[in-house]
Amino acid sequence: MKEVYQTLVIEEVSKDTQEDAKRIVLAGLKERFGSLDESLNRDLNEIVLNYIGRGNHFLVGRINTKVVCTGALIREEVDTGRIVRMSVQKEFRRLGIAQKMLKEIERRAQAKGFKRIVLETTISWHDAISFYKKNEYKEFDRNEYEVHMVKNLF
Q1: What is the pTM of this model?
Q2: Taking residues 60-69, what's their average pLDDT?
Q3: Under 8 Å CB-to-CB from 23, ≥6 apart: which residues?
């Protein structure tokens, strides 16, 4: 575990890595939902343009040349960022990779001057909810489909 965590390199997505990033996110969604409507995920067709081109961050985590995780930070409000597109390739889960990605997203949020980060996750994704709670995210809203969480940055 420690070896994988230490060899993980997190960087902005590039033209060379955006297809791998798309594949990881879509595979995670298909695993969670059982099926996939790609028309609902058009932002993944041109990640560099749709995220980096708009002043946001879309990060990939690599082990050597293999992309194994993703995470994005978009501006929600002047002082608030939103985490989206967090995903770890199935065979690389439970190795501390999501933790490292989350810390890098939080670091970049602080560098942008955000005072808080929000996110939402599907209500049945108990492992994701637990992960964020362990990282000091607090639930502030819930409906029959989603849990909304926030973390204040200091």
Answers
A1: 0.92
A2: 95
A3: none
